[in-house]
Specification:
Shape: globular
Strand content: 15-25%
Radius of gyration: 19 Å
Strand order of the largest sheet: 3-2-1-4-5-6-11
Order of helices and strands: EHEHEHEHHEHEEHEEEHEEHEHH
CATH class of one domain: Alpha Beta
Largest sheet: 7 strands, parallel
Distance between the termini: 33 Å
Bound molecules: nicotinamide-adenine-dinucleotide, UDP-4-deoxy-4-formamido-beta-L-arabinopyranose
Number of strands: 13
CATH superfamily of one domain: NAD(P)-binding Rossmann-like Domain
């Protein structure tokens, strides 16, 4: 089997390329490097010791994607390529809709034109908006609170409609909060500028690159007042993609599946766990809530177990230890 991985030079993509190669698949990465480095592809090649083909370009370019599918005899696609910053999406909605919908349409059109039909799509727990009840299951109500979230929700709806009318079979994977890095410490998350997400920010405080972590709000209706999320190890998440491709043969049509651990941690619990892993305090202070944040969300994991035969196995301490190994060795990420 040969898999085309769009966005395969990025954070989740690079870890997924490793998992796919280890599972015996050949991989072709297509990435425009708009938020990543070709060094990530080199680091993946060094890890898997196998040839990983790389095509630099835009996933919205139907001709380019079609050419990659034909030239490399691609059978199936994992589509990561998208912009992912919530705050940037509020400032630049047009850029987010153009890139996230444009790249998805480009990929689906190229698949239809070349006659391949198995697709895994990167969705997000952001499609649950502010949930009334936790855990959220795939049947929970959906909604979006920002343009980024809308691109994921519209992406899901688009795929469901194309799948209903064609031979396309799709897994919509709704990721919760991926953190951590490959245990080698040679690939990991490499945010542009000041990180927006909790763990990358906290890790840059730990290296001394940033001064202190701001804890956004301690007046939520949660046990310690800080917001709760379902953090999952990026290697578990990567393995979920292999399971999803395997499951597509027996699950035609369009299926949404949560990828999370099924348990939540508060911001202060994450800080405490990171302090235990590092063996020293992490400077932090409580500030006001961040607009748009939900109080608590974690995944219902039954469908992932039944449909994919997948459960997350790595705990929060392992996520933080692995993230720290990468951050400490590569404080400036891939360095470009
Ligand atoms: P990332 O930015 O590290 O990876 C995305 C990759 O796609 C980058 O390498 C970027 O250069 C590439 N890309 C963007 N637009 C492209 C285009 N038009 N053509 C080709 N390449 C393009 O992000 P990530 O964290 O690895 O996220 C991967 C996917 O998972 C995204 O779709 C994101 O929305 C989704 N997701 C991420 C999270 C998270 O917390 N990281 C959570 C839920 C969903
Ligand atoms: C986690 C918790 C913050 C930074 C976002 C997207 C979501 C998905 C994952 C793509 C929250 C708190 C954070 C900081 C803090 N991405 N926090 N200080 O907001 O759950 O999800 O990334 O699909 O769509 O919305 O993740 O890591 O930003 O925040 O206190 O400096 O940490 O308030 O409670 P979030 P996050």
């Amino acid at each position: 089997m040969t898999v085309l991985v769009t966005g395969g030079a990025g954070y989740i993509g690079s870890h997924t390329v490793v998992a796919l190669s280890e599972a015996g698949r050949r991989v072709v990465v297509l990435d425009d490097l708009s938020n990543s480095s070709e060094r990530a592809v080199d680091a993946v090649r060094a890890l898997v010791g196998a040839d990983v083909a790389f095509v630099r370009g835009d996933a919205a370019d139907v001709n380019l994607v079609s050419q990659a599918i034909v030239e490399h005899d691609v059978d199936e696609v994992v589509h990561f390529a998208a912009f992912k910053s919530v705050s940037e999406s509020v400032e630049r909605p047009l850029a987010y809709f153009a890139n996230n919908m444009g790249s998805l349409i480009g990929v689906v059109e190229a698949m239809a034109g070349t006659g391949i039909g198995r697709l895994v799509f990167s969705s997000s727990c952001t499609v649950y908006g502010e949930p009334d009840e936790v855990p959220v299951t795939e049947a929970s109500p959906t909604g979006a609170a920002n343009p980024y979230g809308w691109t994921k929700l519209h992406g899901e709806q688009f795929l469901a409609q194309v799948a209903a009318a064609s031979e396309l079979d799709v897994m919509l994977l709704r990721y919760f909060n991926p953190v951590g890095a490959h245990p080698s410490g040679t690939i990991g998350e490499d945010p542009n500028g000041i990180p927006e997400n909790l763990v990358p920010y906290l890790m840059q405080v730990a290296t001394g690159q940033l001064d202190r972590l701001r804890v956004f709000g301690d007046d939520y209706e949660t046990p310690d007042g800080t917001a709760i999320r379902d953090y999952l190890h990026v290697v578990d998440l990567a393995e979920g993609h292999v399971a999803a491709l395997d499951a597509l043969a027996s699950h035609p049509g369009c299926t949404a599946v949560n990828l999370g651990t099924g348990r939540g941690y508060s911001v202060l619990e994450v800080v405490t766990a990171a302090e235990a892993v590092l063996g020293r305090p992490i400077p932090h202070e409580v500030v006001g809530r961040r607009p748009g944040d939900v109080a608590r969300i974690w995944a219902g994991t039954e469908r992932a177990e039944h449909v994919l035969g997948w459960t997350a196995t790595r705990d929060l301490a392992e996520m933080l230890a692995d993230h720290w190994r990468w951050q400490e060795a590569n404080p400036d990420g891939f360095g470009d």
